[in-house]
Amino acid sequence: MWLSESAKETKRLRQRLERRWKSKGNKNDYVEYRRACRAANNEIITARSNFYKDRITEAAGDPRRRWSVIRDILHLTEVKAYHTPDDCRKLADAFSTFFVDKIRKTKELIKARRSVHDSIPLQHDKPAANSNLPLDELQPPSIDEVFKSITNMSGKSSPIDSIPTSIIKSCADVFAPLIAHLAKLSFAEVKFPTRYKTASITPLLKKKESDPQVTANYRPVSNLHTISKIRRYWSDYLCHVFDHTLKILLILTVFSHRTGVHIPQRRHC
């Protein structure tokens, strides 16, 4: 296994901190968890780099073996399967049916869990972190909070972005008031712009040895609009004040929004 002992230890620490943050919802625990995430990612990247470097170094004396190692690292030795247009169409329909059914079941689960509570949706919430009063009002993020989210987010752009992320980050002082105003309207009208609920979905096998013909062996990876990614920070903020049950409902709701897009729609849906 190429994962080093230090990388394994940082992963275990990350998992412990994640469980502690999710169980308590404390902001300081979240900061520690995010710091552990960055440390674990760096250790994993370093371990993978050292593993590949060692493989190439060991084969340095044999050009043929070295070339074989390089091809293996670049995944050039894998046999690629090419499908006919009809097969691609059938595969797309199969993914559509599977993911739409998954979303429908998720929505039914949310509805069933909500029915367990009484008519007041926030009556079971814990008091806010700096208040002894129960949570009965949610304030939209401020311009400063949105500005901080923009400057801290990754510079990668989504293929469905109208504006490159690099421009948004370089002009954060211009976009922060606009996005904050969008958030304010969203909170006031209890709506989120339909355009930013869409995503580009890529099905990936959960395990390399899984049967690629079984749709249940895939997990949907969604590539959101950059502005939708900023919304994720608002969801994290809400998670600090929601109790465990409502936190699950929020995660499931976001999941249904993120996976219920860019899938061919059927008339019965």
Record the SSE blueprint.
Blueprint: H1 5-24, H2 27-58, H3 63-73, H4 85-116, H5 143-152, H6 165-170, H7 172-189, E1 199-205, E2 218-224, H8 226-239, H9 244-259
Antiparallel strand pairs: 1-2
Helix pairs in contact: 1-2, 2-3, 4-9, 5-7
Q: If you average the pLDDT, what whole number results?
A: 77
Shape category: globular
- For the largest beta sheet, what order do the strands appear in spatially? 1-2
Count of DSSP-assigned helices: 9
| Oligomeric state of this protein | single chain
- Radius of gyration from CA coordinates: 23 Å
Largest sheet: 2 strands, antiparallel
Low-confidence stretches: 239-269
Structure description:
- The protein has helices spanning 5-24, 27-58, 63-73, 85-116, 143-152, 165-170, 172-189, 226-239, 244-259, and strands at 199-205, 218-224.
- The chain is mainly alpha-helical and 269 residues long.
- It folds into two domains: 1-80, no CATH class; 82-269, no CATH class.
- Strands 1-2 form a two-stranded antiparallel ribbon.
- The radius of gyration is 23 Å and the shape is globular.
